[in-house]
Amino acid sequence: MALYAIGDVQGCYDELRRLLDHIAFAPESDRILFTGDLVNRGPLSLQTVRFVRGLGPAAVTVLGNHDLHLLAVARGVSRTKKRDTFGDILAAPDRDELLSWLQTRPLLHREGEFYLIHAGLPPQWDMAEATRRAAEVEAVLRKGEPEFFAHMYGDEPALWSDDLRGWDRLRYITSAFARTRYCDRHGRMDFKEKCEPGRQGAGLFPWFEAPNRRSRGAPIVFGHWSTLGYYAGNDCWGLDTGCLWGGDLTALRLDTQPKIRFSVSCCGHQRPHL
């Protein structure tokens, strides 16, 4: 059995199928961990979600910010944005089944020694606490209450405290897992900075380099950060290599030593400056 992780697909279904052919993926014996953002901005979100769902126990995906945005729009508490391309899911005859499946995906998944998340973690959390915090939001999502999505958006609070309650607490947890790239030395998240490391504002650190990060030493696989590209360091692997923008779609085989990286080139369905 082979264990792979694959970066953000974002509706790039054809590229996903080429990558799976490239690695000779066998769903009856192999397993794939998707870093989230199955949907949006690429051309074939519907086919992507149908396919990944159809893999059954051979695949796991965590929720990314684009997946959560789709759910918010579908539940009638947010509007589509200029570059959204998930209308195929919203118009599909099986939309309810697909959306219900997506809404019950986790924010954090553990597979053997590896932890799978979409974006990042605040430095204040070790993996035991990260698992507990993810479970709080996952429990609300399983209830299917649209009110959650009405309170999901926003950059505050940006600093974790055990004293956070209600929607502020759930919003922070959701943003941490689905949107994190940078934080300051005190652990305050910056949800606006999207550039590659080295060009960020003064006093900001990539989350995996944050001082006193309590999750250090845990093997973490993540996506979300296309300007970072492929990353391997600090016991972390970043797999969003910008397929949507004309980069690559990347798979990493996790059960080998050393780990083996596979990629297929992508034509680029969006341009970053648009």
Task: Characterise this structure.
- The protein has 274 residues and is α/β, with parallel strands linked by helices.
- It has a single domain (3-265), classed as Metallo-dependent phosphatases (Purple Acid Phosphatase, chain A, domain 2), CATH 3.60.21.
- The chain has eight helices and 13 strands.
- Strand 10 and strand 11 form a beta hairpin.
- It is globular.
- The model has no long low-confidence stretch (mean pLDDT 96).
Structure, briefly:
This protein is α/β, with parallel strands linked by helices and 274 residues long. It is 28% helix and 17% strand. It starts with a strand and ends in a 9-residue tail after the last strand.
What is the topology?
Layout: E1 3-6, H1 13-22, E2 31-34, H2 45-54, E3 59-61, H3 65-74, H4 87-90, H5 95-103, E4 109-111, E5 114-116, H6 127-143, H7 147-150, H8 166-179, E6 182-184, E7 189-190, E8 204-206, E9 220-222, E10 231-233, E11 236-238, E12 248-253, E13 260-265
Parallel strand pairs: 1-2, 2-3, 5-9, 9-11
Antiparallel strand pairs: 1-12, 4-5, 6-7, 6-8, 10-11, 12-13
Helix pairs in contact: 6-8
